[in-house]
Amino acid sequence: MQKTAIFTDADGTLFFHEAVHGISCMNSKNGIVNQRNSDKDFTIIDVSTSLYKAYFDQETKKRLEELSKKVDIYLVTGARESTLRKRLHALTFIKGAILENGGLILDENLQKDESWAKSLESESKILKFFIARLEEKGFVLDNQGRYNMARIREDDNAFFKDKDFEEFYESLKIPKGLKKSRNFGHIDIIPTSSGKGPAVKYLISKIKAQNTYGIGDDINDIDMLKITDHSFLLGSSFPEAIKEAKKENMYISKGFFFEGINEILDKISESCI
User: pTM above the 0.85 mark?
Assistant: First the structure.
């Protein structure tokens, strides 16, 4: 029997934020929210973190739980392990997870994939040295609890009151063995051999999946979506990601946010029957 797997981003793809996506909580007691560009209300699960108010549509969860009976579903995210564990009440459908944009892989028992970690060892040492250099220069990093990634957030650094964040990203020089990407407007620095694309490729080979689906919303998802057999982007995705997705003829949902992900999951469900 053909093995099928879905690799899906989290924030901006499954989960939507008040500040970033225009999701407003109308009645937090009953878990009802309204999204921008929609006259529909959604019954949600709160998946907020200490940094963001974020919501997950109960209908999306139901769709993923149904799909998980037929296929393996992996979360692929820039989030750290502690965030994943706080959200486990909502993630009842996952087979495993790729965290920190490929810096860490957890198996179905949520244990670290030691083979993947070993393959990144030398570059991980370079990352630790670079983190120390950034901190010596006065940068505040969003790094607590992270295993294999450095994140620079604009809001954490007074430095960006006088310097354009985008210009800083373009000019930031990093050592050989590391690479940078943007995620939700933040700067992520990770080992060169990691990233969502290489991590997904590794897992596809390990689990011997012959049919794969990828879902994302940001530019750092594109490498992953170039690897999966069938690739989907939400209509509410970042413009740069949509531009790249169009070049690759990926499916872009007509709906935005909750409606967009549900539309995509329905498409995948139809093709998995």
Answer: yes
CB 124 within 8 A of CB 194: no
Enter the tokens of residue 47.
Answer: 């998946």
Look at the block and give the residue holding tokens 């007074």: 158
- Domains for the chain: give ranges and CATH numbers: 4-117+194-272 (3.40.50.1000), 121-191 (no CATH)
d(C-alpha 45, C-alpha 40), whole Å: 16
* Tens digit of each residue's pLDDT (9 = 90 or more) over 140-168: 999 999 999 999 998 888 888 777 888 88
Query: What span, in angstroms and rounded, lies between the C-alpha atoms of 98 and 218?
Result: 16
Q: Give per-residue pLDDT as tens, 96-108.
A: 999 999 999 999 9
In terms of DSSP bridges, do strands 41-46 and 104-106 run parallel, antiparallel, or are they unpaired?
unpaired
Pair of tokens at residue 232: 């989907």
Please write the tens of the pLDDT for every residue from 75-90.
999 999 999 999 999 9
DSSP one-letter string for the chain: ---EEEEE--BTTTEEEHHHH--EEEETTTTEEE-TT-S-EEEEEE---SS--EEEEHHHHHHHHHHTTTSEEEEE-S--HHHHHHTTTT-TT-SEEEEGGGTEEE-TTS-B-HHHHHHTHHHHHHHHHHHHHHHHTT--B--TT-SS-EEE-GGG-GGGGSS-HHHHHHH----TTEEEEEETTEEEEEETT-SHHHHHHHHHHHHT-SEEEEEE-SGGGHHHHHHSSEEEE-TTS-HHHHHHHHHTT-EE-SS-HHHHHHHHHHHHHHHH-
150 and 127 Cβ atoms separated by less than 8 Å: yes
